[in-house]
UniProtKB/TrEMBL annotation, chains A, B:
Residues 32-71 bind DNA. It comes from the Bacteria. PANTHER family: REDOX-SENSING TRANSCRIPTIONAL REPRESSOR REX, REDOX-SENSING TRANSCRIPTIONAL REPRESSOR REX 1. The lineage of its organism: Bacteria, Bacillati, Actinomycetota, Actinomycetes, Micromonosporales. Belongs to the transcriptional regulatory Rex family. Its main location: cytoplasm. Residues 95-196 form the CoA-binding domain. Keywords: Cytoplasm, DNA-binding, NAD, Repressor, Transcription, Transcription regulation. GO terms for molecular function: DNA binding; DNA-binding transcription factor activity. GO terms for biological process: negative regulation of DNA-templated transcription; response to redox state. This is Redox-sensing transcriptional repressor Rex. Homodimer.
Amino acid sequence: MSQHRHPGAPGRAGAVPALPDLPEATVARLPEYLRALHNLADSGHETVSSEGLSAAAGVNSAKLRKDLSHLGSYGTRGVGYDVALLIEQIEYVLGLTQRRAVALVGVGNLGHALAGYDGFASRGFRIAALLDADPSRVGEEINGLVVRHVDELPVIAVQESIAIGVIATPAAAAQRVADQLVAVGVTSILNFAPCVLSVPEGVDVRKVDLAIELQILSFHEHRKASLTALPGGLAATETQEAIGT
Amino acid sequence: MSQHRHPGAPGRAGAVPALPDLPEATVARLPEYLRALHNLADSGHETVSSEGLSAAAGVNSAKLRKDLSHLGSYGTRGVGYDVALLIEQIEYVLGLTQRRAVALVGVGNLGHALAGYDGFASRGFRIAALLDADPSRVGEEINGLVVRHVDELPVIAVQESIAIGVIATPAAAAQRVADQLVAVGVTSILNFAPCVLSVPEGVDVRKVDLAIELQILSFHEHRKASLTALPGGLAATETQEAIGT
DNA sequence: TAGATTGTTAATCGATTAACAATC
DNA sequence: TAGATTGTTAATCGATTAACAATC
């Protein structure tokens, strides 16, 4: 089935093309492929095999081909994938053809770092607003942006067409901020606060909890230690694990 | 099977007890349960049902019970789980009975924030060393710790019994740092640099990529937009998704 | 054509979930 | 005992993987 669905090409009836309904696991890996492809493009590669790309992205090649097959057929048998075309296609699917505006709420320790993080700008996003509930923080300038009060969110959301909200507040404040984001129409939230957010249907929440990541590693440390200490002394066999996203 | 395996109790033959070989998905949720349990304990609950705990942790109750069943039987039918006992048990399994020492490499923008992140200290970890390859950064004091040169790692790793390395360098430097960590015996790495690390068997790597999280949200934004724009106008139905770790 | 590599198949594996028997 | 809730079963679902036919 070699039906190229070019970026922006009409699906049927000339409407906005319906995106393929990708498996979540695939969606989570596409950004990884994209990063690897950009590296390849920067180093002058015009074409790459599934073997080559999968190695660069740290997955196995069957998985990569399966993932890409969900997007349609963009490879050439016997040759590989066109790097530029695949970049274009993945960026289209991920919705990165438009630069999405991000509102970052909470400019404490972590928020400060996020506000200055280059990776956002270079990979499809624009931090359009910094907000905080603490009046003493309002007015501070970080990276060329002035911190504004979170109550200004309704105005700012419209002015800046905020698409994604990032919560970097303490846990105690996070639910209230989430409610405020939802109230102004934000349907995608990245939550750094260590708590569960409750949001209405149709709102996507992703969570990053730094301490949890360490605790998962701690489990594996503990496990490895208990294995090596075993009577039989199994040592560190079969313990490898490069864990995905 | 109500075989309580108490924290620190011998498995067989009086050796260190072999940890249960938990499913990865379960391991990733245990920290979430632990956080919820601490909240419950703080608010005076002595007992909690699977229904109550699962709600607090944002998962369904069948999944919670299944997860906990892997640890052994720590609940009481008709009653629920003893909060304190369950905390103790999960902390034991996660290896949090000892406070693990963390070396943080790269004190740029993000590294600075991580160095000051309270969540680490309060949830079982001790940032024992701050390191950087840039001599102009060495000597700087952050949160009571002096930044040292990454080449001092061999000495520091031993002195501080470093268990986990956190990489917060630019992508270009990350592999070299990973090699250095591995060389001094670190077998658990949390990588914030946007690149794939290659490490020998027995070394666990977890990755946090902030831009990838936004790109995944971007996909869902794009998808929701394409659905509402559809001829039939399916609107935002069945798009809910509170994505786990 | 011969060699290379994709896209797909089908088997396997692991995770989720509802339902309920066991039991406090 | 009656009510509540766990721990487990079994069915289902989704993700991974090796193998290979299709095809450049």
